[in-house]
Design brief:
Length: 138
């Protein structure tokens, strides 16, 4: 139900505010800022699609660890708890780090572009890391 309400809003957000804008060759600063923000949104969508896959894999590793009786002697946080902790820390890091990168143009019209570009770059890297966690034998 909620998805049915949100999806149309998201679809509208994908359309540029100015119909003449093109992310193939952005010219004006506002256009560049919008394209960079859209690039970050796409990167974030991909991260959010990878997240439940990685969560499921880490929970399966936790279950296998317990099933083999190894948890009796090792009481450290499991795969999932560690993943969740790292993701929360990574989100704080990404946002703070990109804010610092944006300060290069602090208060200027370039600042949003710098922040969005940074967030997209780091988000793509994190998505790769989450995918690698699934692909690496545990």
């Amino acid at each position: 139900m909620i998805a049915a309400l949100i999806l149309p809003l998201f679809a509208q957000a994908a359309e540029p505010p100015n119909t003449e804008w093109s992310c193939d060759d952005p010219i004006m600063q506002q256009e560049m800022n919008w394209c960079a923000a859209r690039d970050f949104e796409v990167a974030d969508e991909r991260l959010n699609a990878q997240w439940p896959i990685t969560v499921a894999a880490m929970k399966a590793r936790d279950a296998a660890f317990v099933a083999h009786g190894a948890g009796e002697h090792d009481t450290r946080e499991g795969y999932f708890e560690s993943l969740l902790e790292s993701q929360r820390a990574w989100l704080r890091y990404r946002d703070a780090h990109c804010r610092v990168e944006g300060y290069y143009a602090r208060g200027g019209s370039l600042e949003p572009l710098l922040i969005s570009t940074c967030k997209a770059r780091l988000t793509r890297m994190r998505t790769d890391q989450l995918r690698e966690l699934v692909e690496t034998p545990g």
